């Protein structure tokens, strides 16, 4: 990591800590775009962001990490944070949820927009968790042909660390697949 990106990361982390403590009401009705990575979620979010009332949070991992460090399955700190692919309603904590709602609202206030649209494809594995944090959330689900998605991931995965540092995300995906009889053989394929 370069010095400039380290400074940007530290500044963002500090701002997140401050924003999470502001006496503002948290976001209540965000819209979550969910779907497999490489399925068109980004282009939909980008199109929606052109509306004057919408702030588009494109993979705001730093906001999730600030409130729920265990959502990290990408960085070199994922293992230390106890990063998990699947999170359920039982993983939601009121204090952490309040922090995340405030961070989402802060993003809307900064952008001077009233509707928060968030896109993070991994949230497809965390719908119960999201519903526990944001009971009034709305969802837009995108489906794309699975073979097209797989080809797109294969073309994009290696150069962009798509499966996380040291394959952490890939390991989480394999564990999930092995937990079900229907998908047990997929990791080896």
Structural overview:
Helix content is 46%, strand content 10%. Strands 2-3-1-4 form a 4-stranded parallel beta sheet. It is of the alpha/beta class. It has one domain: 3-Layer(aba) Sandwich (Rossmann fold), CATH 3.40.50. It has helices at 3-21, 41-48, 61-67, 78-81, 94-111, 127-133, 146-157, 168-178, and strands at residues 31-34, 54-58, 115-119, 138-141. 30% of the residues are buried. The protein is built from 8 helices and 4 strands.
Search tags:
four-stranded parallel sheet, 189 residues, Rossmann fold, alpha/beta, single chain, globular
In short:
This protein is α/β, with parallel strands linked by helices and 189 residues long.
CATH topology: Rossmann fold
Strand content: 5-15%
State the low-pLDDT regions, or none.
none
Architecture (CATH level 2) name:
3-Layer(aba) Sandwich
The number of helical segments is 8
* Major beta sheet summary: 4 strands, parallel
Tell me the radius of gyration.
Answer: 17 Å
First CA to last CA: what distance?
34 Å
């Amino acid at each position: 990591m370069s010095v400039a990106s380290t400074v940007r990361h530290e500044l963002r982390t500090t701002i997140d800590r401050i924003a999470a403590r502001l006496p503002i009401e948290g976001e209540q009705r965000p819209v979550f775009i969910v779907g497999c990575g490489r399925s068109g979620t980004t282009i939909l979010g980008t199109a929606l962001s052109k509306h004057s009332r919408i702030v588009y949070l494109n993979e705001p991992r730093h906001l999730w990490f600030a409130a729920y460090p265990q959502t990290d399955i990408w960085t070199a700190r994922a293992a230390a944070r106890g990063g998990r692919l699947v999170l359920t309603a039982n993983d939601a904590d009121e204090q952490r949820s309040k922090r995340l709602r405030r961070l989402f609202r802060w993003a809307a206030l900064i952008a001077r927009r009233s509707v928060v649209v968030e896109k993070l494809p991994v949230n497809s594995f965390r719908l119960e968790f999201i519903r526990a944090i944001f009971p009034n959330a709305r969802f837009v689900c995108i489906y794309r042909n699975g073979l097209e998605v797989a080809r797109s991931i294969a073309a994009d995965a290696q150069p962009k660390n798509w499966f996380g540092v040291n394959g952490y995300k890939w390991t989480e995906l394999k564990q999930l697949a092995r937990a079900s009889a229907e998908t047990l053989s997929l990791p080896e394929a």
